[in-house]
Amino acid sequence: MAVMQATATLLVQVAKDQLEAEDVRAVVSREESEVKTKAAHTQALADEAKADLDQALPALNAAVDSLSALNKGDIVEIKSMVKPPPLVLMTMEAVCTLKQEKADWDTAKRVLGESGFMKSLLEFDKDHIPEAVIKRLRKYIETPEFTPETVAKQSKAAQSLCMWCRAMDVYDRIAKVVEPKRVALRGAEAMLIGANAQLQEKQAALKAVEGKVAGLEAALAAAEAEQASLKEQASVTATRLQRAAKLTSALQEEGVRWGNTAGQIKESTGLLVGDVLLSAACIAYYGAFPGKYRQELVSGWVDKCKEYGIPVSPDCTLRGTLASPIQVRDWRLWGLPADDVSVDNAILVSKGKRWPLMIDPQGQANTWLRNMEGRAGLKLVKLSQPNFMRLIEGAVRLGQPVLIEDVGETIDPALEPLLLKQVFKQGGRSVIHLGDTDVEYHPSFQLYMTTPLANPHYLPEVCIKVTLVNFTVTRPGLEEQLLAELMRKERPDLQATRDRLLLSISTDKRQLKELEDKILRLLKEAKGNILDDEVLINTLNNSKLTAGMIQNRVQEAEETENNINQAREQYRSAAAGASTFYFVVADLALISPMYQTCLPSFITMFNHCIDASEKASDLGLRLRLLTSFAMRFIFDKVQRGLFEQHKLLFSFMLATATARAAGQVTQGEWNFLLRGGAGLTPTGSEGATPVWLSASQWSQLVQMGQVVAALEGMADSMSMSSESKAWEQWAGCSQPHLQPLPPAWEPVCTTFHRLLLLKVLREDKLLVGCQRYIGETLGAGFTQGQPWTLDGVLPDTTALVPTIFILTSGADPTAMLQRFGEKQGMKAGERLHMVSLGQGQGPVAETLVALAAADGHWVCLQNCHLAKSWMPRLASIVEELGKSQVRREDGEAGLHPDFRLWLTSMPTTDFPASVLQSCIKLTSEPPKGVKANVARTYADITEGPFESSCPSKPAAWKKLLFSLAFFHAVVQERRKFGSIGWNIPYSFNQSDLECSMMGLATFLNEAEDQLPWAAMEYVVGQINYGGHVTDDMDRRCLMSTLTRFLTAKVMDSDYTFTPVSGAYHPPQPGTLEQCRAFIKALPASETPEVFGMHDNANTAFELQEAGRVMDTVLAMQPREPALPGSTMPDQQVAALAASILDQLPPLLSMAEAGPGVFERTQAGQLNSLAVVLGQEMERFNRLSEAMRSSLEELQKALKGLTVMSGQLELMATSLLNSQVPELWMRVAYPSLKPLGSWVKDYHERIAFMRAWLTSGQPKCFWLPGFFFPQGLMTGVLQTHARKYGIAIDSLSFAFQVSQLKEPSEVVDAPEDGILIHGLWLEGAQWQNGCLAEPNPDVMYSLLPVIHFTPVQDYVAPDTEYDCPLYKTSARAGALSTTGQSTNFVLCVNLPIREGTDRDHWILQGVALLCMLND
Question: What pLDDT score was predicted for residue 1122?
Fold first, then answer.
């Protein structure tokens, strides 16, 4: 209280003194103003006088400087003048005038002679020159010639004196004006000094008063400060109490969270070492692998960490260690798929030390990166651009992200400094050397690379420079995308709400995280007493309130999202089905590169299906309708771009993929269908093998029961007498796929189980079984593709997307397109432009496309496969078209809506993938079947040539023309029967037929009475068609076929090409339309009789097609275990390799040789057959060593003890697929057997050779057991030649088939020649001592023991058929130096059935085989 009273008293005194000080201050201020006015006036006078003087001083100074420059010589010069020049005289007179001397030359010389003359001039009293002197001086000054310049012409010294005289005049004039001002200035300065003295006195008084006041104010301030301090302390205390309450409230929940977080951190810290180790390993190694393998990899690493005692989380994942939920949500908002694999990929891209190279066939990574980095100015670059390095250099300088698209399997070497991040310091800057320049490296620069290749093969030198990331779409990721598309169409309200919620939740969680971090940062940075930081307390409180609101919002949003997700899940079945469709369609690219498709195109089709499919109020019904419609729509759009041979395969893949996704077909069942049994020695069945089953079939049945639980015991049931008959009847019927199974198994087996049975027991009916399975699974409409028409395709086409015709040999859609174009008003040559690509045609095509796009024409670029170098440019053109806009009105910029781009190409790997993935694909194939082929020939024939080509013999011409067309169709369609039809499938084409037709017309026109049949046969058979044929047996077959059609019998009215059925014969001569009508009436499908073949040829064809389809499907599959109980493919490979390795026999050694085996004759010669044995031993030992070394290396590689090379990888895949590895086939004998049968056959061959080696020459030789059977034949001939002294060139074999069925029945070896067993007849059987037609569905029959007898100059009788003997059923082989196929051994002459000729058996394709395929 006392402090407050003292303060009040001081306040009164200070106020009083302040009033006195104010009075003094006012007086001082007034006087100070007056003094300032006087000072300003004085300064103005001084400035004015100085300004006037400044005018004279330059001239004066110049004169002084000039005088100073004079020396004694100059003065003497003037003085010595007797009669000075006028101006010099005038100058000296002016000087004398100023010095008040007489103005004449004598005086001037006297003055000049004075010793102080120059000093007198310099020190001249210029301020006191008399007026009279000035007046006299002025008469000189005013003289025009009296100027320094003029005087200088007469005397340089006089010039300086002239300047001095003139300067005195100027100074005098100005000084008279300045002097009064100087006087006034001196008076003003005196007054100013007095005023300043008075002012200083007043200011001192004021200072004293102010000092007193200041003292009082200081005392007052101290008192007030003390008073305020006390108040402040009270206020601070109260405030701190309030803030403490706020802080306690604000941090209460945070404390709970911090406690939980601290506990989690403490727990995770102990596992951090292992988690980070695994995360680093993931980033370094697993980017290139698919999701399933990544999981297996991490699982194995976790187990290893535990084994070595490294602490690690049991559920350690890359996303759990290195990703935050907020960041993941942001990635998803930018377009990253929602599956875990995609999240891991994003982490690899953002965390890897090396720049990422993303395998992105569906473009998902591309889309994500564009959205994510678009705000940062992402630069899109392609290595095909000529200026791509310049674009990259600019981005490196500016720190912009770069995305290099469409990277191939190699990377431009110019990018190596960037990939290796070869940044160095130069002058304090970060620099990188790109090309031939140093570019400043911005730290914000980012590089991304994507490749559209689905399965690229990058060399190690590429892989070590980049982080490979496999962005191939996953099934969950695609399912989520399709579900979003479906919801956007079906429930746009839910999807829009979900999209908003995702954005809202992401934003709120990010803000919540920022607030939580802000709280921790503020607490960390707080200094002093935390209760005094009002900003901190308020921020904490506001953050708490905001966080609470956000948490409530997030909780509500997540609950809403869960409800929406539950509603979305009801639609998932349709999205899952569409996802399955996509992966089947995408897998087609594994069959042919021309079948590539892209995800955006598929999603567009799916969206169309959603809009176009039938609606229903019941959700379940609606989804079933949508799924059915989508499957049919996608099937139709895709199958029109597939070759005929792949359409059924596509349907089958679609059906099985749907069933596998629904769990109706297990992986074991699927593997068994594709691979069969993989075991070498199946066990598990004690039943005896039924007589109607082969050993191979029985083995497969046993293994099928082990793999498929539902079929366990089926093999035993077939060996039981009570059921064996029923099974035999089922397997032997003509249509087993339609017949019920034995009663005990009919209700057990599904349709897919029936396929497994057909695979084992009736593989020839497997394809029709597949058709039935497709019909039951998908519907009858999927069992065969629907033919497309350009009328139906045109509505799907646009100006933005090209349409490509994928061609096969003999197909040309040009005429069809021209007809269709004319129908649409696009006449060829006017609005439809055709360009056949080839050398130099690229620029022409590009120009045409540009013009047509503007004018609305059509362009067809033919034979794109011939313009490999131009294909990148085609890709650029199509890409530019896709980015263009279609104009709606004339005059607008963009593409004309009528413009269309058509392409044609044979299948080729060089065709741009980007074009194939986006274009509409159509296949163009020549007609299938004899009828369609003949119809096509007659469709191309016009009326003129048909009627007028042979006017002399029109009837013969028309008959032979039809025969020739029919022959052409037969030789083409015969290819479908595989090796029975032709050893080598030849590409007979329309040109062969046209040449033959012209030759036929020439022969007919030139012939008189008798037609030259032999000549016509030779020209057509040996030249026109025979020019394609390289195999002698095929040439024989060609000529035998031709004799049925180019024969004089054709002219007979009752002649028929098919004697049994009579369905095919030449028409009677008539008009062209009558011939076309006759052809139209022919049967839709031909029987084997048309080709001169047995009905079993159809069975062979069906077996061939079934094998082709299954092999194709198998080639599309990833590595999967096939044995029961195998959980990993590597385990199966290891088990199989160990089994084969353990059973490998020891090498064949000469040390094992029995007595007499390698004895020499008296002439020192080794027996020829012993030489053959030695050669065979070398070959078998080479094979055995290759098998042993490769199996051992493979086992080491599987254990990680050595590198898994590419060859070993292929070997492992072959073992998984029950195929013989390529490593073995290179040094092995030809064989088409699967792995199990091949290994068994290998052991039998080794056993045969070892028996020969140890026991001596066998009585009966197993010819199929030889590496090189031709060597045995030569050895036998050589032995006979040596024995009888006959030239070996004159020897050949005669053949005698014995009655002995088995080699064990042979008692003694023949005196001459050898006995052979183990040969199989294909296309016939041995019956009653001659060749006979085979039994139905029996493709092969065993030939009895046959005696090969060397005979000199042997000529086979006409009653014997030269039956070719081949090593394998493929028949084709490489062309050897002898002109024969390496697969061909020799021809065996066999008696033929009476009533037949050689051509009959040639056309049936009858041959002997050393081994079968099973």
Answer: 41
CA-CA distances (angstroms) from residue 1004 to 82, 772, 951, 1016, 1026? 147, 52, 9, 10, 21
CB 593 within 8 A of CB 911: yes
DSSP 1327: E
Please state, in angstroms and as integers, the Cα–Cα distance from residue 1086 to each residue in 2, 761, 778, 1040, 1095, following that order.
132, 27, 29, 19, 11
Tell me the residue length of the chain: 1414
User: Rounded mean pLDDT of the chain?
Assistant: 85
| Mean pLDDT confidence for 254-280 | 77
pLDDT at 758 over 50: yes
Rounded alpha-carbon distances, angstroms, from residue 1288 to 345, 371, 1173, 1280, 1291? 72, 81, 20, 8, 5
Helix (H, G, I), strand (E, B) or coil at 1310: coil
The predicted structure's pLDDT at residue 1297: 94
Query: In whole angstroms, how far apart are CA 130 and each of 52, 60, 99, 125, 168?
Result: 21, 18, 11, 11, 12
- Burial label for 699, CB within 10 Å (0-12, 13-18, 19+), is buried
> Closest Cα to residue 906, out of 643, 1105, 588, 1108?
643
DSSP-assigned letter for residue 1160: B
* 1379-1391: average pLDDT: 86
Read off the pTM: 0.74
Q: Where are the alpha helices (DSSP H) in 1267-1405?
A: 1269-1284, 1398-1403
pLDDT tens per residue across span 69-84? 666 666 777 777 778 8
DSSP 8-state class, residue 1046: S
pLDDT of residue 1025: 94
Q: Give the residue-averaged pLDDT of 785-795.
A: 86
- For the chain, helix, strand, coil in percent to 5 are 60, 10, 30
**Ramachandran bin of 41, using left for φ above 0, alpha for ψ from -120 to 50, beta for the remaining angles:** alpha
Residue pLDDT, tens place only, 700-737: 888 888 888 888 888 888 888 778 888 888 988 888 88
Buried b (16+ CB within 10 A) or exposed e, 298-323: beebbeebeeeebebbeebbbbebbb
Highest mean pLDDT among 321-335, 658-672, 1241-1255: 1241-1255
Written as one letter, the residue type at 1236 is G
Give Cα separations from 150 to 160, 170, 858 (angstroms).
12, 19, 97
Phi and psi of 822, rounded to 5°?
A: -65, -35
Strands (E), 726-879: 803-807, 832-836, 858-862
Beta carbons of 113 and 79 less than 8 angstroms apart: yes
Instruction: Please state, in angstroms and rounded to a whole number, the distance separating the CA atoms of residues 903 and 908.
Output: 13
| Dist. CA 548–CA 391, nearest whole Å | 49
Contacts of 694 (CB under 8 A, 6+ apart): 1414
In sequence order, which ranges of 886-1026 are alpha helices (DSSP H)? Answer: 913-918, 930-940, 943-948, 954-973, 990-1006, 1013-1017
DSSP 1056: -
Longest dimension (CA), the chain: 178
* Helix ranges, 420-491 (H): 460-463, 475-490
Whether pLDDT at 616 is above 50: yes
Residue 1117 to residue 940: CA distance in whole angstroms: 43
3-state secondary structure of 752: helix
**Strand order, beta sheet including 1260-1262:** 1260-1262, 1314-1317, 1346-1352, 1291-1297
Residue with tokens 């007493």: 529
Residues 701/714, Cβ–Cβ less than 8 Å: yes
Tokens of 726: 């029923």
- The answer to whether 342 touches 364, Cβ cutoff 8 Å, is yes
**Is the torsion defined by CA of 1002, 1006, 1011, 1012 positive or negative?**
negative
